[in-house]
Amino acid sequence: MAELFVAHVVQTGRLPLFSFFVAFVAGFLLIRVSVRMIRAQVRWWPGNVRPGGLHIHHVVFGVAFMLLGGVSGLLITDREGAAIAVAAAMFGFGAALVLDEFALILHLRDVYWTEQGRASVDAVFVAIALTGLLLTGIRPFGWSELRGGDPESGLVHGALVLMVLVNLAGSVVSLLKGKLWTGIAGVFVPAISVVAAVRLAVPGSPWARWHYPAGSRKLELALRRDRRLRRPIIRAKIRVQEIIAGRHDLILERPAEPAVPPRRLPAPGSGDGRGTADSAEPSAGAARPAAAPAVRGTRR
After folding, report:
1. Which letter does DSSP use for residue 238 in this model?
2. How far apart (Å, rounded) are the C-alpha atoms in residues 253 and 144?
3. Residue 150: its pLDDT value, please?
4. Taking the model in full, what pTM does it have?
5. What dihedral do alpha carbons 36, 42, 46, 48 form, nearest 10°?
6. Closest Cα to residue 230, out of 211, 249, 205?
7. Which of 96, 98, 47 is nearest to 300 (CA)?
8. Is residue 224 part of a domain?
9. Cα–Cα distance between 17 and 23 in angstroms, integer?
């Protein structure tokens, strides 16, 4: 086992990437265990960090780990020693903490356990998939050819550049059409993204909003295809994610709008009858401003 590790990881220059991958997965699993224990209100488990009542989210610690690991990696010249492995592991651990709160960064509000919070798990899964592909030795399409030796002729080189650009354009269109996984896979495997790019977009994606007007045949076909094929896959994916990351079932309700203060009627026989200024205090029978509704669920 040690010989295989040296031959396929150390000697191929993948030790920093391997350390990043292991620390990233371990960091994600660790923080998910922690937040689920906090949500379950397990008494013996350390709770949230709240100095002075301020809740410090773990994305803050993630940024600190990323800075420390990244700067250390820039200073280390030995790319095969233990020092660079430790720096890459710190960076990977911090990246896991940051991406686990990707939804908080995206929405600028605490949506961790809501349906919107699933975006964090999606981001982590994408990062794991990309890093795993790179760790196995797979590189983006055209990477080796464009980076390698001199081509036989300028025509061959130009054709290769054109193929890479078409493949990347297909990946971009696939992502705009809401096809995340095929867009990513197309970066590494040619033709996948091109095929996905010419097919119907996912309803609600940027491409569908731009090119599928309400009531159009394309939108109807996209909705029908989404219900028949994509939705069952999404439900299965959510079940797998909930086993690992917990259920995102918290509902954040909108705060109630403040009540309009009642106006005081003019006293009988006072002046010209145009009324006086609004009362500073509501009458006894007036409705008081509604308090903001409580949030369903338990915060972490």
Report:
1. H
2. 51
3. 53
4. 0.73
5. 60
6. 205
7. 47
8. no
9. 10
**Contact by Cβ (8 Å): 20, 88:** yes
CA–CA distance, 223 with 218 (Å, rounded to integer): 9
Query: Residue 278: inside a domain, yes or no?
Result: no
Structural domain including 94 reads: 14-138
Asked whether residue 129 is assigned to any structural domain, the reply reads: yes
How many structural domains are present in the chain? Answer: 1
- As a whole number of angstroms, the distance between CA 95 and CA 93 comes to 5
Which tokens hold the place of 294?
Answer: 């409580």
Over its length of 300 residues, how does the chain's per-residue pLDDT go in tens digits?
778 888 888 888 889 999 999 999 999 999 999 999 999 889 899 888 888 888 899 999 999 999 999 999 999 988 888 999 999 999 999 999 999 999 999 888 888 888 888 889 999 999 999 899 888 888 777 666 666 555 555 666 677 778 888 888 888 999 899 888 888 888 888 788 888 889 999 988 899 999 999 888 999 999 999 899 888 988 898 898 888 888 887 776 555 555 556 666 555 555 554 444 444 444 444 455 555 444 444 445
- DSSP structural state of residue 205: S
72-75, Cβ contacts within 8 angstroms, sequence gap of 24 or more: 73/16
Structural domain contains residue 6: no
Structure tokens at 1: 């086992």
Per the listing, tokens 């300028």 go with 154
Query: Other C-beta atoms within 10 Å of 10: how many?
Result: 15
H-helix or E-strand spanning residue 26: helix 15-39
Handedness of CA 143, 202, 121, 53 (dihedral sign): positive
The total of other beta-carbon atoms located within 10 Å of residue 165's CB is: 11
- Specify the amino acid at residue 246: G
C-alpha angle 263-265-270 in degrees, rounded to nearest 5? 140
Q: Which residue has the tokens 């995340």?
A: 180
Judged on CB neighbours under 10 Å (0-12, 13-18, 19+), 293 is exposed
